[in-house]
């Protein structure tokens, strides 16, 4: 092994357009695949769709970088990953002349901090991080993050938090009045120390496995993403499940569609982007998968109960308090990770 | 290749096999396995080793090995704790697998009639055909506070009018041990079975003949005779436990960080410190290699001529 | 058969004392009867062999005594105690296994000490007795070795030592020399015999090697198809077989099938199926047939032949020499009689010019040298 240096996990730009013209390969989140919509797309365009599924942005990027990147024409990264992938130079610049309906996107999503002007990404859904609880077992319920620390005695081993260092540390920072994205080592340490006191209440850190346990009554409360919470609530109308967005603010996230520079079939990718931007398609996604849509025209098509669902579309004052998770310096990130290891190994 | 006569040979020979020099023949035979091992084991391991020498390397950065900083990191207190937890999971699981697996393997190898042996063995190994993730999820359903075990306890309490305490072990260490033991027991049983099956039954008769009760025969003959199998089975279980992150993650709750999960976090977590992840992996590879080397050297307790 | 056994005893004071007794023992495995009604009495201090072809039930009989099998019906007594339901580890017997069954994870010394340690003997006693028995089997220098480092003959000695060191009432030997080559086997036979005399223990040996049984044993039980055919001293078994099977199995013999033509208190006249009229001296042991079918057994070495008709013409028949086989110390002749019966003859190698094939010759034997056996 020589020391002359090679680039770790370099994605080589392959000549684009190598793929078959009637095939589109996607790499997306579990819940984003809606078979009726995929079938309708194939009927409309004659393009067959194949897809692979990931369950975290990090796995998506690692798989992409490990060499599978050139297989996909469309990826579904979250906001902060878009920023990172733009920096790494993986994403191709979108030709807005080939995209219809971009103007339907709400202004705040057209000019996001992570990708101003939608040069590389099209937002297709957004949501919040919050708390779901069983109102039959926990009354009164939470209004803010601080509820967790104030009711430690009632919550012993009956809550779960997301298995995500940034979300958990961010929420705790927020409960202390700091930014979700704090880079101040003092504040981060303070947040860690506050989390340690919450440990007796935490059954586990997980992003998916809480559902069954909440329904079974083993848990009374879980820190979750809004889409998962709304879906579980809708699927179990007989249960008194409630989703709360903490008053002091939370994280806002959005998932986007991007086209990597290595896309084998840009034609099909543009067709997919245009299809997803159609108001009726976007509205169907919200109705079936419970992701809030950033598409104003689609929002207008939604039935009133869904439009007025504050779990899906929270009021502006909550949004004003909330932040996106943004990429931070690796040195600070290492500090987060170190506290996370401490927290989960003690 | 061997079927053609060599056109350039100075002394034309009828024996075409002589075309290959003697030393070349084994090389040809070893080539497929050698290439396989080289491409899929040696080179990747060397790459991991190289990465482990670069502090804080992330994907997209230039690999420039510069020292052992990543290895020094491992001696940090917080990682010591993680290592100790991993070891304790692995040791305990090995112990329980041995404790439960030996009687089962003994029963299948020495007591079940030959006709049923394979069927019983198959039945025991059958759970391996399902995904390990699924099996861990099944244990969540069984062990959780309102799960199968606690429903049975509640039922028993109401039937016997005793107050049996509910079993609250999900998201605690016992749940991890149960999950790991369940996952690895079939391997232990298979290996112990292979060892017990070869056991010379006349040795058991000889021991009884010399006055050993069944228990004494077991301790003084069966166990020593199957020691290589016990060692091999224990090592396999131990190594697999060190690498398992599904069971600790799903069953272990909030305080279940293990070395395998730590490595996973370095590669796929927020920090993506592939250098430190590689160093941790190298340590794990080294530890496992040493254990296997020891097994090969000392595993066979019987001296050779 | 035990009737017979008792009849054949020498009348000494200890005769009534059996170390091992089997009473009407049956053993059935999955519907197959391996042992059918065996009655045996093995006397204290005796070297007793159970001899028979493979599959005759002799090993099962030994395993029943050792306690590795329990009888389906019947009783087993060791030193007067009923042991049918006593596990092997509580029986005062020790076994030398067919291929030794030494513990290969233990040294020679530890193998031998195995039984004594289980009996919680003192360290000093174990040391003394193991050393003593190692000396007895001439293996003192091998104490620290492992069994795999020993030759077959050496392993055999250790297996013996491991049994003998416990001073059992009865030593059971299952084909103890079967795995050794011929020369070694002869040496070990002598040693086994010496050991038996030195120690005065009861030895019960299972073997299919009749020569081994004849040379070592005080008494032999011949088994066939799960039954004891005959029990007796080696000479009784050889000289006075009581069944055609025993006569045929022990040594070589000529068996001629026929019918009893006339019975006399002293003599029997039997006509063979091919028409030979043979005169037999009655042994008076109650085993000869006095009517009906019968088998005549004549040992090859008891038959004489001559080129001219002998003068005393009892049991004398004319025939033709068919083959002559040279066996070193002996000559082996195959003769076809005029009647069509084939007879083998064994003669010491003393003739300088043995007759050639096809020579007409006369064979004869004394009525004392042939036996009439019932065929049942």
* Nearest-integer average pLDDT of chain A: 90
Largest protein interface, residues of each chain: A-B, 44 and 47 residues
Overall geometry of chain A comes to: globular
For the termini of chain C, the CA-CA separation is 15 Å
CATH class of the largest domain in chain A: Alpha Beta
The biggest beta sheet of chain A is recorded as: 7 strands, mixed
Gyration radius over CA of chain C: 24 Å
Q: What is the share of helical residues of chain C? A: 10-25%
Quick summary of this structure?
Helices cover 69% and strands 1% of the residues of chain B.
Task: Describe the structure in your own words.
- The complex is a heterotrimer of chains A (346), B (305) and C (376).
- Chain A has 2 domains: 163 residues, D-Maltodextrin-Binding Protein, domain 2 (3-Layer(aba) Sandwich), CATH 3.40.190.10; 151 residues, D-Maltodextrin-Binding Protein, domain 2.
- Chain A contains 15 helices and 11 strands.
- In chain A, helix 7 runs parallel beside helix 15.
- Chain B has a domain of 190 residues: Orthogonal Bundle (MetI-like fold).
- Chain B has 305 residues and is mostly helical.
- Chain B is globular.
- By secondary structure, chain C is α+β, with helices and mostly antiparallel strands.
- Chain C is 24% helix and 34% strand.
- Chain C contains 9 helices and 20 strands.
- In chain C, the strands form 4 sheets. Chain C has a 6-stranded mixed beta sheet, sandwiched between helices. In chain C, strands 13-12-11-14-20 form a 5-stranded antiparallel beta sheet.
- In chain C, a hairpin with a 3-residue loop joins strand 11 and strand 12.
- The two termini of chain C are 15 Å apart.
- The N terminus of chain C is likely disordered.
- Chains in contact: A-B, B-C.
- Chains A and B meet through strand 1, helix 2, strand 7, helix 8 and helix 15 of A and helix 1, strand 1, helix 3, helix 5 and helix 12 of B.
- Strand 1 of chain A pairs antiparallel with strand 1 of chain B, so a sheet runs across the interface.
